[in-house]
């Protein structure tokens, strides 16, 4: 005798979404069959397996990781996802992270489908031209619209939440719009994910959320908190939520390197403060971080990459050694140094698998997946001026050297230079978080 999921759901008093979720988490343990029309059917044996899981998770209150161990499955899901079986929804999929994520996914991981979710039809049209629509589907929608999100998440296994308003001045000038997109949008993503039985959700956050100095950072801090606590709301459905937090991916328009190159023509470049430092991250590294977070997450962690820092003065010397450097002063909402892990968060942070993991500050949170993690030293703060890993002038000179001398196209030069470099050195140049200069305005350097 074989049963449909609704029949199993009634027999075991479990929502169908929980059954689907457990099938993913206990992949290989629950043995289902498929009809010729590819409908899933459950044998008595599969129902018994689900019953065992239910007893462990719901009655004995074991975590998924503990239940896997007790069932003899071990913990091998850590570090492993069967990507070909995953349907992914990517909010903000037409942005710089989103497009790069799609490129890497299609080349390397080949998920079943990626649903891109964003507002602007033109960007989606352009993306469709570039990526086609075989493995990528395009959903017009706003993260402010919970119903639309819920519809878009039906049948989805993994959600990456990248949509955000992220220009610091725009968020300052339109504070409620930033709140609606970054905070209420985060809440909508969480509700829709729980209601549709999504398994894992990773939200993208920023260094600006750590001790925020501007509204953008404050909204991202709220979003992080909502995501971390989303795990408490998901109940028996078991949707897991985590965040990744990284620093500026220095962008092409108005961000520091192209601006330096432009200013070089006048023989003078401007920096905001001689003491300023920044982290450097490539889009590849950002995508790797998200993939790693998805593989290792239990829910509630904030994953932070281990990346190098540089001094703004070194960058100026590397790019424009002959130019006069003028200091124009730090601007409102700008920090001298970026912080990725604050002193308070440091108390709950471990170094694990080439990254830092900030764990939730709750007594009930158990570190199953992080037994091999190393506690960071007491008083640990991870800021761009207190980093063990620095790019010196020579390294920066190599990174920023034009691909073909004499070409004026700074962005093209830079991007092609990046492609020639090994992945642990720098970076993508598209889509800086902060800086869009107005047309015709004197360019000021911000990083
Ligand atoms: N770039 C960086 O340096 C950096 C650093 C750290 C963290 N982050 C974080 O990484 C994420 C992605 O950044 P990014 O650089 O890829 O940004 P981006 O290039 O500006 O892309 C933003 C994306 O979000 C979409 N979007 C904006 N508002 C939306 C809304 N209300 N509903 C649905 N979609 C919306 C945009 O498309 P539409 O306009 O068509 O809707 C676009 O696809 C953000 O959460 C950001 O905070 C970025």
Q: Care to describe what's here?
A:
- The chain has 447 residues and is α/β, with parallel strands linked by helices.
- Helix content is 39%, strand content 16%.
- The protein has a ten-stranded mixed beta sheet with strand order 5-4-3-6-7-8-11-16-15-17, sandwiched between helices. Strands 1-2 form a two-stranded antiparallel sheet.
- α9 (175-196) packs parallel to α10 (215-233).
- The longest helix has 22 residues, at 175-196.
- Residues 404-432 and 434-447 have low confidence and may be disordered.
- NADP nicotinamide-adenine-dinucleotide phosphate (NAP) is lined by residues 91-98, 118-120, 123, 142-144, 162-166, 181, 185, 204, 206, 220, 246, 248-249, 431-433.
List the helices and strands and how they pair.
Elements: H1 5-12, H2 16-25, E1 32-34, E2 40-42, H3 44-59, H4 64-70, E3 87-91, H5 96-109, E4 113-118, H6 121-131, E5 136-140, H7 146-153, E6 158-161, H8 168-173, H9 175-196, E7 200-206, H10 215-233, E8 240-246, H11 256-264, E9 268-271, E10 277-279, H12 283-296, E11 302-305, E12 309-311, H13 312-319, E13 324-327, E14 339-341, H14 343-346, E15 349-352, E16 355-358, E17 374-375, E18 382-383, H15 393-400, H16 410-419
Parallel strand pairs: 3-4, 3-6, 4-5, 6-7, 7-8, 8-11, 9-13
Antiparallel strand pairs: 1-2, 10-12, 11-16, 14-18, 15-16, 15-17
Helix pairs in contact: 5-12, 7-9, 9-10, 13-15
């Amino acid at each position: 005798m074989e049963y449909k999921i609704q029949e199993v759901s009634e027999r075991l008093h479990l929502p169908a979404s929980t059954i689907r979720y457990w099938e993913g988490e206990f992949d290989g343990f629950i043995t289902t069959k498929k009809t010729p029309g590819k409908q899933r059917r459950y044998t008595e044996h599969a129902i018994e397996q689900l019953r065992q899981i239910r007893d462990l998770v719901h009655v004995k209150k074991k975590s998924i990781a503990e239940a896997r161990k007790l069932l003899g499955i071990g913990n091998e899901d850590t570090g492993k996802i069967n990507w070909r079986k995953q349907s992914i929804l990517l909010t903000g999929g037409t942005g710089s992270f989103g497009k790069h994520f799609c490129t890497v996914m299609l080349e390397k991981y080949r998920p079943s489908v990626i649903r891109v979710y964003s507002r602007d039809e033109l960007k989606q049209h352009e993306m469709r031209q570039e990526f086609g629509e075989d493995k990528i589907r395009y959903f017009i929608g706003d993260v402010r619209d919970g119903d639309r999100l819920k519809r878009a998440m039906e049948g989805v296994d993994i959600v990456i939440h990248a949509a955000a308003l992220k220009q610091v001045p725009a968020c300052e000038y339109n504070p409620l719009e930033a709140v609606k997109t970054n905070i209420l949008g985060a809440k909508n993503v969480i509700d829709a994910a729980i209601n549709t039985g999504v398994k894992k959700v990773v939200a993208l956050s920023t260094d600006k959320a750590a001790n925020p100095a501007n509204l953008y950072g404050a909204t991202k801090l709220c979003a992080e908190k909502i995501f971390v606590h989303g795990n408490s709301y998901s109940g028996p459905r078991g949707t897991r939520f985590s965040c990744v937090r990284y620093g500026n991916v220095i962008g092409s328009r108005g961000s520091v390197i192209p601006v330096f190159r432009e200013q070089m023509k006048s023989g003078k470049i401007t920096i905001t403060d001689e003491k300023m430092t920044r982290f450097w991250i490539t889009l590849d590294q950002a995508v790797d971080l998200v993939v790693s977070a998805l593989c290792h997450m239990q829910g509630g962690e904030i994953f932070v990459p281990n990346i190098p820092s540089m001094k703004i003065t070194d960058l100026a010397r590397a790019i424009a050694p002959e130019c006069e450097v003028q200091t124009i002063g730090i601007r409102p909402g700008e920090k001298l140094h970026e912080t990725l892990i604050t002193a308070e968060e440091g108390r709950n942070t471990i170094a694990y698998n080439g990254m830092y993991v900030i764990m939730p500050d709750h007594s009930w949170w158990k570190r199953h997946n992080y037994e091999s993690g190393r506690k960071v030293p007491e008083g640990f703060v991870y800021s761009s001026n207190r980093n063990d890993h620095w790019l010196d002038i020579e390294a920066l000179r190599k990174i920023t050297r034009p691909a073909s001398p004499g070409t004026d196209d700074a962005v093209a030069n830079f991007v092609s230079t990046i492609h020639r470099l090994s992945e642990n050195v720098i970076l993508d140049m598209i889509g800086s978080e902060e800086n869009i200069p107005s047309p015709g305005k004197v360019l000021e350097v911000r990083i």
